User: Fold these one by one.
Assistant:
Number 1:
Amino acid sequence: MPARVTGSARTELIADTALALLAQRGMRGLTHRAVDEAAGLPLGSTSNHARTRLALLEAAVRRQAERESEILTPAELPDAAGSRDSLADGLALTLHRYLSGDDHRDLLVSRYELALEATRRPELRAYYDAAGAQFREPLTRMMAAAGSDDPARHTLSLVAWSDGLLFSCAAGSYHATTPTWDELRSGFRELLHGMLDGGAAAGGTRSGARGGGHQEV
C-alpha cells in the first residue's frame, strides 16, 4: 500500500490491517507498531488514529462488523412470513458465502480473537455486543414472522448453530471442510422446522402421557 493514505482510507486500512494481524499472529501480535509496519504506514500513524490499545480494538470491532455485514447481508434474506424454506435458503447462502470466500476464513479467526478479548475487557464487551446486535435483531424479527412462539430463544438456537458450524469449519476439527450450499440448506431447514414445528409435537407427546397412555422411563 502507498505510504500516503489519508482520511477514511487510512482509517479503513488501519482497521483492516489490525484484523489481518489478529488472524495471523493472535492478540499478542496486535500492536500499534505492527499495524504501521504491516500497512506500510509511517511509524506513529496508528497511534495518531487510535491512541490506546482499547481504541485500536474498538476500531477493529467496528470494521469487523462492517465487513461481516457485506458478507452476511441480512437485508438479502427473504420475508420469513412467506416461506420457512426460503428463509433456510437465504441463511445457507450467507454461511456458504462466508466459508467459501478467499479471505473470509481469516475474518472468522479475527472475530474469535476479538470475542475472547471482549471476555477480559468489559469496556470492549459493550462495544462488541452493540456491533453484534445488528445481526441478531433482524433474525429475531424473522423468527417471529416465521411463526415462532419464542423468537428470542429460537434466535439464540439459530445463532448458536450457525456460529458452531462456522467455528468448526474455520478453526475446529472440520477446518478442511467447506459444506456445500445444499448441505447448509438442508441443515437450516431441519433446524427451522424442528424449532417451529417441534413444539406442537412435543406438546402432543406430553399430553398423551398425562392422558394415561403407556409411559416408558
Note: Residues 200-217 have pLDDT under 50 and may be disordered.
Number 2:
Amino acid sequence: MSTTTTTVGTTTLARTVTDVLQPRNALLAGMLGIGLAAAGDWTGLLWGFLGALCAGLIPAGYIEWERGRGTWGDRHVVDRTKRAPIFFVILGSIGAGSVVMVLGNAPGGILVAMLALWVMTIGLLAVNTVWKISVDSAVASAVVALLAVVHSPWWLAAYALTVAVCWSRVALGYHTVAQTVAGAALGAATTVAYAFG
C-alpha cells in the first residue's frame, strides 16, 4: 500500500470520526442520557432535548447560517480569531435554556449539566482569546464525564470516543495534541459542578 493511499485512508477515517462525533451529535446523545438520569422517567428526555437544542443544535445552526453567508469556510472555523461570535451564541442559548429549565422546574441534574456547559464555554472563550483550544475535544470529554457522574463510572470507558475525537482533530490538522488535550481536560472539569450542585 502506498503512502498516498494510507494518507488518504487516514484522512477519510479522521473526517468520518470528526463528523460523526461532532459537538451537536455528542450533545444530543449525551443530554438525552443526562436528562433521563436526572428525571428518572421519560420526561427527562424532553429536558435533555431542550439541553441538546440549546447547547448543541442552535449553535450548530448558527454556524451553518454563517457558512451559508460565506463568513466561514466550514463548521470547524479553524481561525480562532473568528470564533468569539460562536461562543457568545452558545452562552446566550445555554443561558436561555437554563432559564426555561428553572421556570419549568426541570430536574436538578440536567440544570447542573447545562450550567457546567455554560461555565465550560466561558473557559473555552477565555482560552481562545490567546490560544486555539479544541472545542470538539472539550465537548466530547464533557459529555462522557457528565454521563459517568449521573449514570455510572462505567461510562468512563466511552473516553475511547473522546480519544478518537482528539486524534481526528490532530490528523486533520485542525489542532495540535496539546490543544486537544487541553480541550479534553476542560471538558472533564465540568464534573466539578456536581461537587457543588
Note: The chain is about 75% helix and 0% strand.
Number 3:
Amino acid sequence: MLVWERPEPPDRPMPAPLSRERIVQAAIRLADADGLDAVSLRKVAAVLDVGPMRLYRYIATKEELLDLMVDAVHAEIRPAGDGWREVLRSLAEAIREAAHQREWLADLLGGRPQLGPNTMAGGEAVLAAMGGVDLGTVVPAVAAVHAYVIGAVRREITERRAERASGMDQKQWQAAFGPYLQRTFATGRFPALASVVHDGPHLDADQTFRTGLDFLLDGIEARISS
C-alpha cells in the first residue's frame, strides 16, 4: 500500500509523540539548513529525539520521506487565476518561488509524477482551468510548462550554488572570463556568439524566466486558437 493510503499507527502515550507530519517537517528543516544530503531517517529521528526504528512505523523508506517532503511543499503551490494562461503562469511562478525558498526542491522536481494529495490538487486546478481545450493540446502544453520551469529553476539554483562554491557572483565571473572571450571573439570564428554577447539584451534571472515563459504561453495560445 502506498504511503498516501497507508494509515498511520495508532497514537500511544510516549515521551515524544510522532506523526508523519512531524517527521516530514523535521526532514524539511534539515534539508532547508543543509540540503538533501543532511536528510536520513536516522538524522530525522535524532532531531525528534526518538529511536530510528520508531520512524519505520510511519515511513518505510527514505524515498517515501522525500515524496512526502515534496508533497508538503506543494501545499504552498496553489495555481490560480482567470483562464488557463493565468493559471499556468501562476503554477510556473509558484514552483519557481518554492524552489528558491528551498533549494533542495530543485533536485526532486521532474521524473515520475508525484501522487501526493497536495500535488494532485494543484494538477486538478490546472486541468480544470483548461477545461474546454482539446486534451491533445492540454497534455503536451502542461508538460511543456513543467519542463520549462524545471529546466529554468535547476539552472538558476545551479548558478546560485556555483556562486557560493567559487566565491564569485555573476558580474565577477564575467569580469574574470571577459579577457578570454575577447581574445576568442577576435579570431572571428564565432561571429554569432560575439554579436549576442556584445549587442544582445542582458536580462536578469527574473526577466529571463518571465520572457521565456511568455514565449511558451504565446505558443500554447497560438495552438489553441488555430
Note: The mean pLDDT is 92.
